[in-house]
Structure prediction request, 747 residues.
Amino acid sequence: MSEVNLTINGRGVSVPADYTVLMAAKKLNVNIPTLCYLKDVNQIGACRMCLVEVKGGRGLSASCVLPVTEGMEVWTNTPLLRETRRGILELILSNHNRECTSCIRSQNCELQRLTKELGVTDSPYERAEGEGGGFAPADEKSLSIARDPGKCILCRRCVAVCHDVQGVGVIQAMGRGYNTVVGTAFDLSLADVACINCGQCIQACPVGALKTKDDTDKVWAAIGDPAKHVVFQVAPSVRFGLGEEFGVPAGGIVTRQMAEAIKLLGVDKVFDANFAADLTIMEEGTELIGRLQNGGVTPMITSCSPGWIKYCETYYPEFLPNLSSCKSPMGMMGAVIKTYYAENAGVAPEDIYSVAVMPCTAKKFEAARPEMSVGALRGVDAVITTRELARMIKEARIDFLELAGADFDELIGEGSGAGTIFGATGGVAEAALRTAADILTGQDLREIDYTAVRGVKGIKEAVIPIGDLNVRLAVVSGTGNAGKLLERIKAGEADYDFIEIMACPGGCVTGGGQPIRSSDEKYKKDFRAARATALYQDDVEHEIRKSHQNPLITKIYADYLEKPNSHRAHELLHTHYTERELYPANI
Amino acid sequence: MATEEKIARFREIAAAAKGTSGSLIPVMHEAQELFGCLDYEVEKLVAQEMEVPLADVYGVATFYSKFHLEAKGEYQINVCLGTACYVKGAEMILEKIEDMLKIKVGHTTSDGKFSLEATRCIGACGLAPVMTVNDEVHGQLTVDKAERIIKRYMSETGRK
Prediction:
């Protein structure tokens, strides 16, 4: 790419010709304010915060959509710009529900931050009251995501991520002018449209208009109930994100502090869902070998990600026979907690309150699926996200960074390095390969880093020789990418034996329930890569890096499940899927 | 045309337009022409046949005032809210009619007889405030006069 020279505030800079003025400014560490801009996702010049003056230009220009040209002279901090930006912010604030002190995004809100930084102290404008007065009502019906139109600033970052990145498109700008809202078709609830609950819209939202459905009250109530035996399981990715909520730089690993903090909340037992990830590998790996050797339906596709599962059920039901019948690790852990653990601990399953801490909003929906129940009980009674756990720790006044750390509890406490890498795109495939290769070769292989499936690329392909087999593999993250790959398979342009699909770009480490980073932070750092680096580091630090070598896995099969894919294992650890309507039958 | 025929006709229209950039709006016009409005079932059909999200169809339908989500009534009442009419009290007339028909502006009565719209200036400022009922223009309105006119139409249709 050829380079273009321009000056910004009198300083020269040379940037690739496809850069925008905003990107060129960032190269000089000139931080032009933005609200609607989200790198690689939304560049539409809608919010007008990023206006700049260009010598010889007509009026002010939105720098996020302004291409650089040779010899351009740009000014980003003139009296006119400061005045204009303040005016725009005042207008946005006039139609924003400013309950900042009690807002979930307080102190992590891009609007609040700009208001403070640009010296806006109030809005002189009165809000025109709509029909019925007040702001449009919140939509709280979905189990995963709540929408509050009163906070929405119409930046459309959620619209772009839902439609363009995830290939879902259930939210859009509706109406026009002052009455514009970002909402759903016919103002339906997110629960009633084809939303996959991935929560990437929450990650994209600069304010508190999209948020996780909060379940911390239910968990606190269970902890406070002396009749309840409260058991937590924690997903791999949580330990690579939670620290950020307490000021730890991205990539920090806080496994032991996290385990101790959860115990300090008053929880009876804390288990590592990495154990269930190992269990998943045993079941899914065995299923894959079976399908490949017995002419079963292939490509077999992973079933760990509930956002992907709902996407498949809704948008590509013809691929349901390709899905592994395995429950997700969370689902398996829930079943194991209410049976194997309950029997061993001598606790009645109905007295156990099982909580899963997940990097994921879609897990809240998954946990409520009827096929995830264990007898008459739910396997997982409540799901909280990484952010909700951080809030509980703060509410309990635990000084997280000062904790010495603790181990997970026994019996189903520990996982292998293979379990930990489930959190990044490619991790499940790699973990499965480690075990499948040992089984098929009958050896304890040393070369177990399958780097071809690592990295943040949306679609990765590899052919991996294992024993006599050449496994044709694809690894996909982001449901939009999944749709592209499935279309190629349908058209006969691609064929695989095994596909790993995660709903969220980058995998679970950047799931909808993980810490929310601002547009500016995401411009400077790829959090998918930063958190994944920590995860592969954690893998190497594990003495046991293969699921089938985890002694707790050996024990549960010897004592309880007999062998992978046994009748008992099928009863507890496997599930089925349901085709879902793209549109509700009536409204 | 029977509904099945209309759907078949629409499928042909959509198939010819699908994939062409900018074809959604003209196709939605055709759908509205065929089916009378863009209600849920019609928008669902547009979304399916054009392979675009339903939210996109609804977004377009609610952006342009020429698209309507409900079928128009037998009598289309347009109350002018242009500047001249507005300052002479058109809003009170609009409220009165909403009250009488028990519908909000932009909607159609459940018996399908009346639709109510607010319009921009219709160019009859000399008669302000003004409203039209189908092709008839009623000017120099007061709330009382508007009430009498609407009552007359209501009795024509046998409405109480």
Summary: The domain at 3-77 of chain A is CATH 3.10.20.740 (Ubiquitin-like (UB roll)).
